[in-house]
Design brief:
- By secondary structure, the chain is mainly α.
- It contains 13 helices and no strands.
- The chain has a single domain, classed as MetI-like fold, CATH 1.10.3720.
- Helix 3 runs parallel beside helix 6 and helix 7 packs antiparallel against helix 10.
């Protein structure tokens, strides 16, 4: 009897959580199809559905440019982070060198401080060296924040048998060949997770990006969406809702493409061998 009661309570709790999570999503979607600029609907489902906000989004704004800019930054930053993260994680996991212990401690310390703490330093660099609207500088800054990913991938590599490395070296492989031909293919699920994390983090990044990018044509999606609700005369929440709905599609597509790797990567990354 107690077990059945506990089972029903857990089911009720799960459904409450689902409703709380899905309600804002449904509200945003319904607002994007409602007429006018009012974000507060009389009912969850508007009486008349309209596509006017989607038409306005593509015809009267630079939404397409913002999406393309965001995708460009996301793909480049995610790829750079994959390279840097995999090399650093392999070094910390497999190699023994002077300063390794303190390097791992430094990674832990770096995870404590948010990137926003470096905003003042970025301001100085931008205006001292003329880096306003410099995409390359922004890419380097965003690609450098991978301390958490290094720990995640290192934990995964620690769970791979060292005997694989030793067997390959007996057959004549060097360290780079072991890394490239053995470790990397085995770490593919975790690499997919890291790519997704990097992609999402860059896609939604606002604070640092707003410092570097100033002109409308160079804006990313996060900056463009902010402009809809920060207008000095009116906040276009329904237009923001339409943009939010469409902007979620790239994340969903990337997730579905990597789905078969992500599940294994998340489970294996949390288990240290």
């Amino acid at each position: 009897m107690k077990n059945r009661r506990a089972l029903w309570l857990s089911r009720i709790f799960i459904w409450i959580v689902i409703v709380l999570v899905m309600f804002p999503v449904v509200w945003i979607v319904m607002s994007s199809f409602s007429a006018g600029d009012s974000f507060f609907l009389a009912s969850l489902f508007p009486e008349k559905l309209s596509l006017e906000h989607y038409v306005t989004l593509f015809k009267e704004t630079d939404f397409t440019v913002w999406v393309l800019n965001s995708l460009k930054f996301c793909i480049i930053v995610a790829c750079i982070q994959l390279v840097l993260t995999s090399l650093a994680a392999y070094a910390f996991s497999r190699l023994r060198f002077v300063g390794r212990k303190y390097g791992l401690m430094a990674l832990l310390v770096l995870q404590v401080f948010p990137n926003s703490m470096a905003v003042a330093g970025y301001y100085i660099l931008i205006y001292k060296f003329g880096l306003v609207d410099n995409s390359l500088a922004l890419i380097f800054v965003l690609a450098g924040g991978s301390a958490y990913n290094i720990w995640l991938l290192k934990s995964y590599m620690d769970g791979l048998p060292v005997e694989l490395d030793e067997a390959a070296m007996v057959d004549g492989a060097n360290q780079f060949q072991v890394f490239y031909k053995i470790i990397m293919p085995l770490a593919m699920p975790q690499l997919a997770v890291i790519f997704l994390f990097s992609f999402i983090a860059t896609y939604s990044e606002y604070v640092i990006t707003s410092i570097f990018l100033q002109t409308p044509k160079s804006m990313t999606l996060a900056l463009g969406l902010q402009s809809f609700i920060s207008d000095q005369f009116a906040a276009h929440w329904t237009l923001f809702s339409a943009a939010a709905v469409i902007s979620s599609l790239p994340i969903m597509i990337v997730f579905m493409c990597l789905q078969r790797f992500i599940q294994n990567g998340l489970v294996a990354g949390g288990v240290k061998g």
